[in-house]
Amino acid sequence: MKVALAQLAPKLLDKDANLDTIEKTVAKAGADLAMFGELFITGYMARDGFPRLAETVPGPATERLGNIASEHGTHILAGMPERDAKGRHLFNTSILVSPDHKVWKYRKIHPANFGPFEEGLYFGRGSELVLADTKLGKLGLLICYDAFFPELAKAYALQGAEALAIISASPATSKAFFDKILPARAIENTMFVLYANLVGTELNMVFQGGTQAIGPRGEDLGRAKDFEEDVVVADVDLRHIRVAREFRPTLRDTRREFWETVAPGKRAQNRKRRKPR
């Protein structure tokens, strides 16, 4: 599949302008999948604007994304603030829309709350992984800081994910970390990693970029220029996963018992089964 990773600077607090940018980019790229950064639809530093700008899913923004996807035959992945159906909570959400208007939504499991990040002031924590089984392949959805937790990527791999689709709003101070951990997520799970970050400046936050596509053996499939708006177009051939896993069978050799979460009920059962010393 042809993937377009859009490293762009959204217009802060202007959903219509950012949706226009998505439409223009998708039309020009002619890709099977187009990815845009974390909270791209509003801008990352919308702060007190999030409650006003957040939408339910489905809602007006996802409806427009669906129309764009349908017109151009492109799956579109972008970030937005989501309001739950009851209107009580907001989430930092990754939305994937297919050309036939199917919608997947992933709520960020690890909102960033350290240093310059204040996501916990606005957003709740997601609780579920979302494996999007699309016509293009099986995509595991993650957002920015989630990539630092290898158990999430491993869980997706064991569920059959062929690529991690990661949208991000990572500032320049974090770029060196992402340049190290993204290839690790690809190599340790023998899957593709597709990463789209913001660029530009929003209030006091400077986004350097670092948008890139990585193959299942750590191959560099394309990288955006630092501090510049850019669209990386990468050819992703999912058949390469089989070859990668034959040469380095990390997924086959994974020992689930060392990382898999044990549910409270199951944990209690395990305690009962233990024999006294």
General description of the model:
It is a single chain. This protein has 277 residues and is an alpha/beta fold. The chain has a single domain, classed as Carbon-nitrogen hydrolase (Nitrilase/N-carbamoyl-D-aminoacid amidohydrolase). It is 27% helix and 26% strand. It is built from 7 helices and 14 strands. The strands form 3 sheets. The protein has a 6-stranded mixed sheet. Strands 6-7-8-9-12-13 form a 6-stranded mixed sheet, with helices on one face. The longest helix is centred in the N-terminal third of the chain and has 15 residues. The chain is globular, with a radius of gyration of 19 Å. The C terminus is likely disordered.
Secondary structure: elements and pairs:
Layout: E1 2-7, H1 15-29, E2 33-35, H2 50-53, H3 60-72, E3 75-83, E4 90-97, E5 103-107, E6 131-133, E7 138-143, H4 150-158, E8 163-168, H5 175-189, E9 192-197, E10 200-202, E11 205-207, E12 212-214, E13 220-223, E14 230-235, H6 240-247, H7 264-273
Parallel strand pairs: 1-2, 2-3, 7-8, 8-9
Antiparallel strand pairs: 1-14, 3-4, 4-5, 6-7, 9-12, 10-11, 12-13
Helix pairs in contact: 1-3
Brief overview:
The protein is α/β, with parallel strands linked by helices and about 280 residues long.
Number of strands: 14
CATH level 4 superfamily: Carbon-nitrogen hydrolase
Described by the principal axes of the CA atoms, the overall outline is: globular
**CATH fold annotation:** Nitrilase/N-carbamoyl-D-aminoacid amidohydrolase
Distance between the termini: 57 Å
Order of helices and strands: EHEHHEEEEEHEHEEEEEEHH
Q: At the first level of CATH, what is the class?
A: Alpha Beta
The largest pleated sheet is described as: 6 strands, mixed
| Poorly predicted runs of 5 or more residues | 262-277
CATH architectural label: 4-Layer Sandwich
Which whole number gives the mean pLDDT? 93
Structural class given helices, strands, pairing? alpha/beta
